[in-house]
Amino acid sequence: MSKKLIVVVGAGLGIGNHVAKKFGVNNFRVVLVSRNQESLNQYVEELSSEGIESYAVVADAASPLSLTEAFNQIKKNYGTTDVLVYNPAVLKDGKPTSLTSEILMSHYQVDVASALHCALQVIPDQVKQKAGTILFTGGTLAMYPSADWTTLSIGKAALRNLAFTLAEELKSKGIFVGTVSIGGSVAPDTHFAPDLIAEKFWELYEKREKNEIVYS
């Protein structure tokens, strides 16, 4: 039986790579997507050294065009995306009055709009297969907004609503959509260690019971 494929957009030393590893050790092929080729090469080397079949594709979450090109390349070279994980966010603080509409919209592109854009790249093939999973890295700022983190609060609220509305639309087509809403700063050797959070992504994928796990 051939391995399924997980695509992690927003690869990195935190949640992205730990989710990739969790699925990889459970017999998935892995494609990591981020902006930096050098870092990606290093991540692929690390996963490969642990026996995980992994590949890298460069794209920028701020650019829908680069994401489209990346997913075209992924489909051509590696096949249908069985699991999509969207992990990017602009982690920049700022109170509402310190922002401009342009700043808000540039963050929104990365935090929310590109999540939808990535989902739209994989949904048609998942619909054909009547199977697939789409998972978003959320945050409890969606429910408990902070003035110090205005754009991220707005972004996580919108991303959470995107997850729930996609889940409602796609359930009858065999596609599961979920989000892990994280209620703290991700850091190794803490309750919010990325490997512990990765377990929650796997739980959503495996159980497919509820569309959100709040990890706080």
Radius of gyration over C-alpha positions, nearest whole angstrom: 16 Å
Q: How many helices does DSSP assign? A: 6
Strand content: 15-25%
Distance between the termini: 37 Å
Strand order of the largest sheet: 3-2-1-4-5-6-7
Q: Please bin the fraction of helical residues.
A: 40-55%
- Spatial shape: globular
What summary fits the major beta sheet?
A: 7 strands, parallel
* Count of distinct strands: 7
Mean pLDDT: 97
Order of helices and strands: EHEHEHEHEHEHE
Low-pLDDT sequence parts = none
**Which structural class should the secondary elements be placed in?**
alpha/beta
Q: Describe it for me?
A:
With 216 residues, the chain is of the alpha/beta class. It is built from six helices and seven strands. A seven-stranded parallel sheet has the order 3-2-1-4-5-6-7, with helices on both faces. The longest helix has 29 residues, at 101-129.
Summarize the topology.
Elements: E1 4-9, H1 15-24, E2 28-34, H2 37-49, E3 54-58, H3 64-78, E4 83-86, H4 101-129, E5 132-139, H5 150-170, E6 175-182, H6 194-207, E7 212-215
Parallel strand pairs: 1-2, 1-4, 2-3, 4-5, 5-6, 6-7
